Amino acid sequence: MHRHPPAPLLLAAAGGTLIAADRTVIHRTADHRAARRPGAVRPPGRFAAYRGIFAAPGTAAFTVGSLLSRAPMGMFGVSLIIMIATTRGSYALAGAVAAAGMAATAVLAPLTARLTDRYGQARVALPATVWAVAACLALLLCVRYDAPSWTLFATYIARSTTPNTGGMARARWAHLYRDDPAARHVANSFEQVADELCYLLGPILAAFLCTALFPEAGMLVANVLLLVGVLLFIAQRGTEPPAAGRPATRSGSLLRAPGLPPLLAVFLCTGMIFGALEVTTIAFADARGHASAAGAVLALQAAGSGIAGLLYGLSRPTGPATARFAATVAAMAALMALPLLARDLPTLACCLFLAGCATAPTMVNGMTLVQNLAPPNRLNEGMTLAVTAILAGISAGAALAGTVAERLPPGTGFWLPAAAGALAAGLALRVRAGSRA
């Protein structure tokens, strides 16, 4: 027999969502929002929308866990390169191990995400993380005790089960605010800013630890952060989306979902932009005798993206998501031509800051489209496919830019992100034409 409790105490959240004292999330309709009393108190401050999404119980805790577990994503690559190059004296070996790990991630990450959708985040993320951390500890032992080179490949590939907590966090927001597009827009913007922050600070922290302490320090700290963050994240069971369970019929590939293949192709091009910009900027700075400043210059791109993402989250999205996505991708493509104008490092720094301003809005709209196009019971898989496409693009863009930097004058490689941006803009139109999201 159902019992009907008395009217609960309600706390206002973002986009018209109400949080009851008994932790029930109640979504108000547009009519209810329109009928709000004129004298009602609203949260003060420009960033009230960001505070509002954290009104739901457990959101702050799972966000802290997500940030802790995501910080290593910006640390693993730099830590691996410095660790192997320092102990083995070979950047070629370090690059090969990193490439092998990225290739394994491209294969295993979507499979891990599919299991996450099927059995739940907590049941899959914990064993996947424990396995990944154990593999990384084995890698550290292999490096410390000068094990054969093949063991570095084996152990680093084994850690590719690391769960995509950024995607899982977005899946939680999508579940909590499934009836509130405005709140989901704010949440996706926040998550993109968090990504930029992790990838901005992660490499700096990794480089400091590996050089100031010992070569394995960066990888060791990254694994501690990963394990602690995942444990805190999965402990918040109240915000976890329900597991879909094993489907009654064989489910097809998400690559057949209308609109999703061209969307993933845009993410691939976006990754190529990131990879080519990074390598070309380093080569550009090195050719002018300021190689040590390359990191600070690249950080300005991430800073521009983060600021733009923060402000974009405060805007009120209008029109179809596909139209917004096509517009932001077009803006990104146009801004990626700016580095071609740079003749010195200060000018390049300004160009990269401006070029980064369209990146976060593009990613926010892109992730919103993934949430719209992927079936609700396969959200983790859909967002992991997007991240995998970006990682594959970064790898391809870095490889192409490295070849260009060795054979052509410094700065020539900036044509690569410009071309990838133009291709992405064309593909974004395909997304708009092939989807009604």
Architecture overview:
This protein is an all-alpha fold and 437 residues long. The chain has 17 helices and three strands. Mean pLDDT is 76; it is low at 1-43.
| Integer tally of domains | 3
Shape: globular
The fourth-level CATH homologous superfamily of the largest domain is: MFS general substrate transporter like domains
- CATH class category of the largest domain: Mainly Alpha
Can you tell me the residue ranges where pLDDT is under 50 for at least 5 consecutive residues? 1-43
- Let me know the number of strands: 3
Write the layout of secondary structure elements.
Layout: E1 10-12, E2 17-20, E3 25-27, H1 30-34, H2 48-53, H3 59-70, H4 76-88, H5 91-119, H6 121-144, H7 149-158, H8 165-176, H9 181-212, H10 217-235, H11 260-287, H12 294-312, H13 321-335, H14 345-355, H15 359-373, H16 379-407, H17 415-434
Antiparallel strand pairs: 1-2, 2-3
Helix pairs in contact: 3-10, 4-5, 4-9, 4-10, 5-6, 5-7, 5-16, 6-7, 6-10, 8-9, 8-16, 9-10, 9-12, 9-15, 11-12, 11-16, 11-17, 12-14, 12-15, 13-15, 13-17
What would the keywords be for this entry?
Growth Hormone, Chain: A, 2% strand, disordered N terminus, 3-stranded antiparallel β-sheet, mainly alpha, globular, 17 helices, 437 residues
Structure summary:
Helices cover 68% and strands 2% of the residues. With 437 residues, the protein is mostly helical. Strands 1-2-3 form a 3-stranded antiparallel sheet, with no helix packed on it.
